[in-house]
Amino acid sequence: MPPITGRTIFGGPPLHEFIAPGFGTEIIYSLVIIVCSLMIYFGTNELYELSSHKGIKYFRQAFLFFALAYFFRSFIKFIIIYFNVGTILDISPRTFGFVFGQMTLIVFMYFSSMAIFYLLYSVMWKKWNGNSKKIYLFHLLAFIIALSSILFRNPFVYLGMNLLLLFFVIFTFYVSYKQSKQKRTKHNLHVIYTLLFSFWTLNVIDILIPEFFQMFQLFIYIASLIIFLIMLYKVLKKAGSN
Amino acid sequence: MKRNKLEIIRDILKIIQDHHNSIKVTPLIRKSNLSSTRFYEYLKEMQDKKLIQETINEKGKEIKITEKGQKYIREFHTIISFIEEFDL
User: Fold this and answer.
1) Rounded distance, CA A88 to CA A205, Å?
2) Which tens digit of pLDDT belongs to each residue from A90-119?
3) B71 in contact with A at a CB cutoff of 8 Å?
4) Which of A12, A98, A180, A230 is in Cβ range 3.0-4.6 Å of A84 for a Cys bridge?
5) Domain B5-85 belongs to what topology?
C-alpha cells in the first residue's frame, strides 16, 4: 500500500517534480529565509516584551514581513501545486495559474517592501521624532509598489521603480550612518543592511524580470542566504539567552 | 548625563529592589531624581507594563517589583546592547 501523501489525497503531481532544478532550489531558499526570519522574530520577543522599545518592535516586524513575503514568494506555490488546490476549486489550470500568480506577486511585493521599510524605520524612528504616522505612509507606498508590479508589464518600469527605491533606502540609511559615525566609531551593521537592501532589490528584479539574472540566480540566492544567516547570528549572539 | 527612558525605568526598579522590594511613593519620588509629574508618568507606564505593582498594607500604599520587573533588571544590559548593536 503506497504511503498517504498530499498527492494521494488530492491527486497532485509527485514530489520529485519539485526537486527539479529551479523550483526545488527556490523552495529550499525560501524555507531557510522564513526559518531565519522567524527565529529573529521570536528570538527577540522577550526583549520587546520587557522594554516595549519601538526600535525593537519595528526591527522584529521587518523580519516577520520578510517571513510572510518569502512564504508567498514560493512556499505557498509548493503547497498549492502539491495539494492541487486548482482542481479542488474547479478552476482551469491556466486561469488558476494566472490569478494565483498575480495574487501572490502582489502579496509578496507588499510584504517585502514593508519588510524593508520597517527595517529602515527601526533605524530612523528616533531621527524622525518617533512620528509613527510615517509608517502608514510606508504601507501606502508598499501597496502602490505591489499594485504597480502587476499593472505595468514593462521590465524597465520594474527596474526603474526598484532602483529608485533602493537609492532612497540607501541614501536615508547613509544619512543615519553619518550621524551614528559621529557618536560611535565601531559599527559594521550599515554594511550588512546595505547588502540586505541591495540583494532584496536583486531578488525583486529576479521575480519581476526572471530572464534578467538567469545566469546569476544561484549567486543571488546564496548571497541573500549568507546575509540572513549573518543577521540571525548577530541577533542570537545578542539575544540568544532569551 | 541625560538618562534615557529605559535607564530611568531600570533606576526606579533598582531603588525598589534596594529597599527590600517595597518602598513608599514619597521616598521613591525623591530618590528617582524626577519631577513629580514625570515620576507619575513613569509609575503609570511601569504599572501598565506590569513591571511594578501597588500594594496597600498596614503601613499604607507601597510599590513592589513584579517578577517581570526583576527580569527587566536582569536583562537590562542585553536590551541596551541589542539596541546599540542594531542601531535601533
Assistant:
1) 32
2) 667 677 777 777 888 889 889 999 999 999
3) yes
4) A12
5) Arc Repressor Mutant, subunit A (1.10.10)
C-alpha cell at A159: 527596474
Chain B residue with the nearest C-alpha to that of A119: B88
Q: Which pTM was predicted? A: 0.83
Q: Does B4 reach chain A within 8 Å, measured CB to CB?
A: no
pLDDT digits (tens, 9 = 90+) for B20-57: 999 999 999 999 999 999 999 999 999 999 999 999 88
What is the three-class DSSP state of B83?
Answer: helix
Q: ipTM > 0.85?
A: yes
Name the residue type at position A81. I
Exposed e or buried b per residue across A110-135, where buried means at least 16 C-beta atoms within 10 angstroms of its C-beta:
bbbbbbbbbbbbbbbbeeeeeeeeeb
Q: For residue B29, how many other CB atoms are within 10 A of its CB?
A: 17
- Under 8 Å CB pairs connecting chains A and B tally to 54
- Chain A hits for B85, CB-CB cut-off 8 Å, are 189, 234, 238
Please give the residue of chain B at the shortest CA–CA distance from A47.
B79
Domain residue ranges in chain A: 10-239
- The three-state secondary structure class of A178 is helix
Any chain B CB within 8 A of the CB of A189?
yes
Amino acid at A35: V
